[in-house]
Amino acid sequence: MIRKRVLARGEVQGVGFRYHARAQALHLGLVGYARNRPDGTVELELEGLEASVSRMLRWLETGPRYAVVTALEVSDVATTGESEFQITG
């Protein structure tokens, strides 16, 4: 199991980004969270099998239909053993 923190930049708020990301994460068997940040970015933490996290990162490069992702900042973080994927903020 691995966990990544992702900061998505671009037109990522107000386009259903967090909800689509949650659906994709659940489809891939991932846990973690997605939340809007005051600076207009979306922060996510993704935990699961390395292959599933990699697939999610590829999906995040484009995001949902109306999003315009201009950059992803990805860093490793410690696993938490969470059991669900939450949307906050």
From TrEMBL:
<dbReference type="InterPro" id="IPR036046">
    <property type="entry name" value="Acylphosphatase-like_dom_sf"/>
</dbReference>
<keyword id="KW-0378">Hydrolase</keyword>
<dbReference type="InterPro" id="IPR020456">
    <property type="entry name" value="Acylphosphatase"/>
</dbReference>
<dbReference type="InterPro" id="IPR017968">
    <property type="entry name" value="Acylphosphatase_CS"/>
</dbReference>
<comment type="similarity">
    <text>Belongs to the acylphosphatase family.</text>
</comment>
<feature type="active site">
    <location>
        <position position="36"/>
    </location>
</feature>
<dbReference type="Pfam" id="PF00708">
    <property type="entry name" value="Acylphosphatase"/>
</dbReference>
<dbReference type="GO" id="GO:0003998">
    <property type="term" value="F:acylphosphatase activity"/>
</dbReference>
<dbReference type="InterPro" id="IPR001792">
    <property type="entry name" value="Acylphosphatase-like_dom"/>
</dbReference>
<feature type="active site">
    <location>
        <position position="18"/>
    </location>
</feature>
<protein>
    <recommendedName>
        <fullName>acylphosphatase</fullName>
        <ecNumber>3.6.1.7</ecNumber>
    </recommendedName>
</protein>
<feature type="domain" description="Acylphosphatase-like">
    <location>
        <begin position="3"/>
        <end position="89"/>
    </location>
</feature>
